[in-house]
Amino acid sequence: MSETTYKVPTMAEMASSGESPEILFWVGCAGSFDDRYKNVTKAFVKILNKVGVSFAVLGPEETCTGDPARRAGNEFLFQMQAVANIQVMNGYNVKKVVTACPHCFNTIKNEYPALGGNYEVIHHSTFLQQLINDGKVGLKGGGEFKGKKITYHDSCYLGRANNVYEAPREVLEALDAELVEMKRCKTKGFCCGAGGAQMFKDAEKGNKEVNIDRTEEALETGADTIAVGCPFCLTMMSDGVKNKEKEGQVQVKDLAELIAESEGL
Amino acid sequence: MEYIQQVLFLIVVGVAAFILTKRIKHIRSAIQLGKDVDLSDNKSARLNNMLLVAFGQKKMFKRFIPAFLHLLIYVGFLVINLEVLEFVLDGILGTHRLFAPYLGSFYNVLMNVFEFLAVAVLFSCVVFLIRRNVLKVKRFHAAEMTKWPTLDGNLILVIEIILMIAILTMNASDQLLQTRMPDQYASTGSLFFSSFLIPLLDGFGDNMLVIVERGAWWFHIVGILAFSVYITYSKHLHIALAFPNTYYSSLKPKGEMNNMDAVTNEVNMMLGINTEQAAAPPAEVGRFGAKDVNDLTWKNIMSAYSCTECGRCTSECPANQTGKKLSPRKIMMDTRDRADEVQTSIEKGGKGLEDGKSLLGDYITKEEINACTSCNACVEACPVNINPLEIILEMRRYVAMEESGSPASWNSMFQNIETSFAPWKFAPTDRFNWANDLKSEKADS
């Protein structure tokens, strides 16, 4: 077997053959529908395939976690979504959830337990870091990112909301790239402007867009790559780079994409 | 005649205690306008928070210069209060420097330490005044820093400077009196800092010197008592409330929003899920979310009274930094002002909450709460663990669930989630389409 296709098993398929995967990969709405962000989903699935982790997705059975509804104030809608999702996950006896979206991560990890959904939830940055530590991916010593400048934009929902600061940085370090920090990073990180359901409406009147402010700061580092770990950040930073007409020189990439690329996947 | 000073002192202390008690009752009742919330769990973690954040000033040190200057004032405040103990006892007993004979040469060490701290406090207050008024540090000049908040900030610093000068003047005149009337004035030994003031007082006659010493003594103790009343009207109340506020601060991850159990019951009923509580009579649901201070928790209101308007939250807020109207500090100031207004009205037999006004609308606008990205920068920045975000999100709940007054694009997002199970309008059946091209892609194995 020298060549095969990537496998994306669903929980339903697994259940029908009496299997239960080690992890549920929670794709999220952006991961399912956003054209640009679908690449991140695919990159992560490629990595999962490569390392041979037993995983499955919910596929058509997955729905929005309810995070934007809750942040915008619609608690009813949030709970309707949450309870439905929990019923599905509990039905499959899910134990461990991995997701690339910090908003899904935060909601499933911190807010689903109050509604009866208790799982071990980890963000894909932590998952990738574990793979690197186990020597399964991202061997040091060259690759296409060697010596390149990368800056990491902290996602609020991963960093301040859940104290995940080091995992994404360790992932980037494994690329053998030069990690340059922005002035506002880690606990002092600056929002991309899309959290708290801002993604779904125009910003209030001000004198600048949040993502432009943040992009300017990222560009000041002189990095070729702005690494992100969140679908909203990816969109906001990409828009910012486009606004500054720098898309030729600077790329915005998710951690999973960077790892997949360095692995030649 | 000889008891007149003691009687006077007791009257002054009595009056101060009376006013203070009334003020504490007022603030306590204002805080209790909020909904009850049980925060009695996990005592050791809470104590730990209080010791690190309030007592240990941990979060202050994210900005070193103001943290260091603040630390000098804070330590000065804690330690100089030991001297106030002697002041009070002297006042009641009609003695002079009661502890001096008992502590011997250690008294001199102690007094020198107090003087060092007094000078340190004085120095810090002067630098803070310069930062506020000359260097015009940006966060002290935001839209909500109107007349009273600005005056309040300056008054506190000036009062502290004057109180410290009183201590030094008292010690200087006392040292001179020790040389002139050694029988009546117990020796304190040489006091380093106040000695510099001695040449200024040396020309005074004995009587005048006694008046200066007593004057400074009275000024300091009355000043402290008056100041303690003043702080109950001021942002400076943080010196007391920082401790309970950090003790009762959230132990949950910052990203976690409180679950609304009343909604859970309804959702479970709608979905036909049997829960243990289903048989119980439905809990009385007041209002969904927060429109006024009584919809917030007592902890939210306590936080509002703990806020010292330093503006670290606002200076970190991405919405504020990009020129939006939202300022987390203003959210807290508004909450306190509204709670105080309601409580004052109640005490006067007025309309209280029914005065036709509300926190949301009359104090805080939708434009402000809608601008929040829920990034938690304000929560992270607050040196005393205040959470403005919680108040903002509770208000959004009110707007969304009671008024259906969310921005139109949020309403369409709600609709999309309801009908397509995603915030964007895509067919739910297309959710798994991304896997199609992947399944046909070749992979090495």
Automatic annotation (TrEMBL), chain A:
Residues 24-109, 150-237 form the Cysteine-rich domain. InterPro entries: Cys_rich_dom, HdrC_iron-sulfur_subunit. The keyword Zinc does not apply. Keywords: 4Fe-4S, Iron, Iron-sulfur, Metal-binding, Oxidoreductase. Pfam families: CCG. GO terms for cellular component: plasma membrane. One of its GO terms (molecular function) is 4 iron, 4 sulfur cluster binding. The keyword Iron applies. This is (Fe-S)-binding protein. It comes from Fulvivirga lutea.
TrEMBL record, chain B:
Residues 298-329, 362-392 form the 4Fe-4S ferredoxin-type domain. This is (Fe-S)-binding protein. Keywords: 4Fe-4S, Iron, Iron-sulfur, Membrane, Metal-binding, Oxidoreductase, Transmembrane, Transmembrane helix. GO terms for molecular function: 4 iron, 4 sulfur cluster binding; metal ion binding; oxidoreductase activity. PROSITE patterns: 4FE4S_FER_1, 4FE4S_FER_2. PANTHER family: IRON-SULFUR-BINDING OXIDOREDUCTASE FADF-RELATED, IRON-SULFUR-BINDING OXIDOREDUCTASE FADF-RELATED-RELATED. One of its GO terms (cellular component) is plasma membrane. Gene3D superfamilies: Alpha-helical ferredoxin (1.10.1060.10), Transmembrane di-heme cytochromes, Chain C (1.20.950.20). The lineage of its organism: Bacteria, Pseudomonadati, Bacteroidota, Cytophagia, Cytophagales. The chain crosses the membrane at residues 6-24, 67-89, 109-130, 151-173, 185-204, 216-233. InterPro entries: 4Fe4S_Fe-S-bd (IPR017896), 4Fe4S_Fe_S_CS (IPR017900), HdrC_iron-sulfur_subunit (IPR051460), Helical_ferredxn (IPR009051), NarG-like_sf (IPR036197).
